Amino acid sequence: MLDANLKSQLKSYLDMLSQSIEISASIDDSAKSNEMLELLHEVASLSNRISLTEHRDDAERKPSFSVNRAGGNIGIRFAGIPMGHEFTSLVLALLQAGGHPPKAEPDVLEQIRGLEGDFRFETYISLTCQNCPEVVQALNLMATQNPRITHVMIDGALFQGEVDARQIMAVPTVYLNGQPFGQGRMSVKEILAKIDTGGARKEAEKISAKAPFDVLVVGGGAAGAAAAIYAARKGIRTGIVAENFGGQVLNTLAIENLIAVKETEGPRLGSLLEENIRRHDIDIMVPQRAAALIPGELTEIRLESGATLKARTVILATGANWRKLDVPGEQKYMAKGVVFCPHCDGPLFKGKRVVVVGGGNSAVEAAIDMAGIAEHVTVFVLNSELSADSVLQKKLLSLPNVDMKMQSTVTEITGDENKVTGVLYRDRKTDATHDLAVDGVFVQIGLQPVTGWLSGTVDINNKGEIVVDSYGHTSIPGVFAAGDATSSPYKQLVISMGDGAKAALSAFDHLIRN
Length: 514
Fold this sequence. Notes:
Layout (H helix, E strand, L loop, with lengths): L3 H11 L6 E6 L4 H14 L5 E6 L8 E6 L5 E5 L7 H11 L8 H8 L5 E7 L6 H14 L3 E7 L4 H6 L7 E4 L2 E5 L4 H8 L1 H12 L4 E6 L3 H11 L5 E4 L24 H14 L2 E4 L4 E5 L4 E5 L4 E9 L3 E3 L15 E2 L2 H4 L7 E5 L3 H11 L4 E6 L8 H8 L4 E5 L1 E8 L4 E8 L5 E5 L2 E4 L3 E3 L29 E3 L11 H21 L1
Parallel strand pairs: 1-2, 4-6, 5-6, 9-10, 9-14, 10-11, 14-25, 16-23, 17-18, 17-23, 18-19
Antiparallel strand pairs: 1-3, 3-4, 5-7, 7-8, 12-13, 13-14, 15-24, 20-21, 21-22
Helix pairs in contact: 3-5, 7-8, 9-10, 9-14, 12-13
């Protein structure tokens, strides 16, 4: 199952184990159990510190396996075969259970150890989801630090009965003690903020007590990372406040247009951005979300947590999110059939009927991907022709289970209160309205700048973008902006990085002159 190169890399990691590990496999006679066993035997053969036992008569999900420290009480379980994006989650679980120190701040580890109560987490994932590993790895780390925390990763494709019973239509979906806890990407700090409200309050108080910054960057994507690093290299007091590191990059499966890098994956690049930020003298405040900007002699940024920060200059690099349809039913059925990531959520719609809305590259790529998973795909295109690259159009039009609805607009998403059951759409040629029974709606109509929180402060254009000049100046002196949230043309990764660097240099120039 593992090729020679991967085995060699894994062995080098397992050589770091300082304590013995016990893997306990729960299996039956299925092909997937045999496949999982094959993987586990290969892993165990690479280290004399790993032992493997098999069980057929226990009450655990099958196939699944637990990872535990010999004689310990670590509650980590994988229900499925953690390959694809989840292979790293397996490697980290083995290392951390085997005594290798996790990459986490000491105060975060101390907060995890101090949690009171029992926390039984379950995370439903798909192996093609690039967002799922962060959640799985965060909860696995927590399980290694506190014996009252357990976590099981569940591959939705293998446990379809559970997925249907719990009506899970987006990944990652997390349950805590049998109740819905959260969906989507979550870091350790975000999880802790939800279960340890006292800790979140203390963190807000700590942030508010910080002295004013010379440069405060709002946003942790490509533009924000570049801005923070360029500012810090000038030797001035620099802070960065963000929801996460990577931003929209994290939702990009493959990146092949970053100069000097042949190819990489979005989550990998997001990790590298964070790693580089942490190498510099930058005050990092993550996860935090900005709520308001108040201009003044010192610009004030208020956060949703209740904390307040002040700075001599501010760089806004809040990026963009998926653009929504803004039709009835969309918000109601979000993550209940209305989704945005075919790579992450596509496997949950195996054998079902789905809709893709959009006519650009991302929409056509989504439709092609879903045609290999779903029973049928209907593509709704606003205009009379697709705008996607011709090679993608040719591939899409060759697929037998894809229908095109040109010059058609989805006007409502309908459901049975628990999940999507159909869409209403208008044929723009005839103005007639029709309904279509479907199980899922993939919205692929571009990006929307994250600028709503700035309403009434800096100038915003009719696209929702922060208006900037060629130096990154906004309408407020001392406030700069960069990246996809701005009016800067061509939303590309390298342009965002350049904009971030330029904004930092402009902020430094402003400080010198004032």
